[in-house]
Amino acid sequence: MQCDDVARQLPAAVEHGVAVDADVQSHIETCLRCQAEVARYRKMLRGLHLLRTRFLEPAPGLLAQTLAAIEAEGERQARRAILSGHRLAYASAIGGAVVAASAAGVVVVVHRSRRRVPATT
Amino acid sequence: MTTNELPRERDELEHLVGAARLGDRFAFDELVRRTHVDTYTLAYRLTANEEDARDVVQDAYLRAWKSLPNFRGDAQFSTWMYRITANAAYSAAKRRRRHRAEPLDTMVDDPIELHPDLQPEAAAETSAMLDELAVALEQLPPKLRVLVVLKDVYGLSHEEIADELGISVAAAKVRLHRGRRKLRDLLYEDGASDKGLAHAM
């Protein structure tokens, strides 16, 4: 096993809990260069983990803009809900009117057809 | 909002989340007030651009407001917000690739940093080391940076990251691997950082 082979595996191997090949492990134990490389990766990962505690303060105005955007979205949703309610009411009214008109049409047709039937003696 | 929230703080957040899930806008506004610095920090780490980070924060909270009724509460609100923010940042990066000619990791602004309360000397060393790391992170290609930030800074699992980015777990692992290697090269290529990092840690 060469240092280059080990180097290719280190980014994954340094993670806590990741199993390392026995070949890689035994090479690292005897190679100062690879031990230094492992130490570098571990420092880097510790640093990245520490970065989590470093907060960046947004420029003023972000909070107000975000809250305003949420409020606008809330209003949009409310309008949409009202409109969809109106649409449902319109659709129901139109549907009712169509049914009533159809029923009336049927009554008229039946009535006319009865009047046309000649009287039998 | 941190993964190690204090119990009282966590209880209050849970209470606010519960109220917001039932449609309480004021509770959601309060959640935004309490978590926006953390969300902005993640957005900035992912985008490496202040303007984009602001857009991502707004988009993330709008998405959170819309999908809050579906939040089951089996994860912490903070983790849930990380995932939404990551998704919003990923969508923003895709939109930007379509509309802009310049590379994604240019135009890096300098936001104000809040330093933890440490002993002055140790704080200065740690701060210098974190500065180096932050700068190196910003130089990573966005596709690799998102993996390193979400996994190594914010501690999300490979599965959570893959799910949010719409990629396979295997692809997430490969990108993380490449991201770490590239970051290592950026930090140690001239040997100067080695000394700084070794000192600070």
Produce the secondary structure layout:
The complex is a heterodimer of chains A (121) and B (201).
Chain A: H1 3-13, H2 22-30, H3 32-51, E1 55-57, H4 62-116
Helix pairs in contact in A: 1-3, 2-3
Chain B: H1 7-21, H2 25-47, H3 50-67, H4 77-99, E1 112-114, H5 120-139, H6 142-153, H7 158-165, H8 169-188, H9 192-200
Helix pairs in contact in B: 1-2, 2-3, 2-4, 2-6, 3-4, 4-7, 5-9, 6-8, 7-8
Describe this structure in words.
The complex is a heterodimer of chains A (121) and B (201). By secondary structure, chain A is mainly α. Chain A contains four helices and one strand. Chain B is mainly alpha-helical and 201 residues long. Helix content of chain B is 74%, strand content 1%. Chain B is globular. Chains A and B meet through helix 3, strand 1 and helix 4 of A and helix 2, helix 3, strand 1, helix 5 and helix 6 of B.
Amount of beta strand of chain A: under 5%
Distinct helical segment count of chain A: 4
Strand composition percent of chain B: under 5%
Broad shape of chain A:
elongated
Compute the number of helices of chain B. 9
Proportion of residues in helical segments of chain B: over 70%
- Proportion of helical residues of chain A: over 70%
Order of helices and strands of chain B: HHHHEHHHHH
Uncertain runs of chain B with pLDDT below 50, 5 residues or more? 101-116
Structural class of chain B: mainly alpha
Q: Which term fits the overall shape of chain B?
A: globular
The first-to-last residue Cα distance of chain A is 116 Å
User: How can the largest sheet of chain B be summarized?
Assistant: none
The helix-strand sequence of chain A is: HHHEH
Radius of gyration of chain A: 39 Å
For the sheet with most strands of chain A, the description reads: none
Q: Which class do the helix and strand fractions of chain A yield?
A: mainly alpha
Terminal-residue CA separation of chain B = 25 Å
Question: Top keywords for this entry?
Answer:
heterodimer, A: 121 residues, mainly alpha, B: 201 residues, 9 helices
